[in-house]
Amino acid sequence: xxxxxxxxxxxxxxGGSLRLSCTTSGSIFRINAMGWYRQAPGKQRELVxxxxxxxxxxxxxxxxxxxxxxRGDTKNVLYLQMNSLRPEDTAVYYCNVLGYSDYVTIVDYWxxxxxxxxxx
Length: 120
Known about the structure:
Elements: E1 2-7, E2 10-12, E3 18-26, E4 30-39, E5 46-52, E6 57-59, E7 67-71, E8 77-82, E9 91-100, E10 106-110, E11 114-118
Parallel strand pairs: 2-11
Antiparallel strand pairs: 1-3, 3-8, 4-5, 4-9, 5-6, 7-8, 9-10, 9-11
């Protein structure tokens, strides 16, 4: 079992920056990818950014050039650096880990979410 705990959310003015962190604990056989998702009120959850075990990254078009996903040196921490924040970035941000608990069983873990509010 893996536990994910997000932090770093808060209230920021348009144009400001935040860095979200996701600390993982527990054991997993193999991680395929880690990512950040967000869900705004009345909208579906969407992928914001993802990083694979090999280090490849991809981003939703709306955050390209403004956000950077990375993993800490110990690989048990995931970051999302968000710059030039816009009101439309307001959402609850969730950390996700997708991998395997053994050779055949896919697992998909989620954190509890952290609120990001961009407003003047």
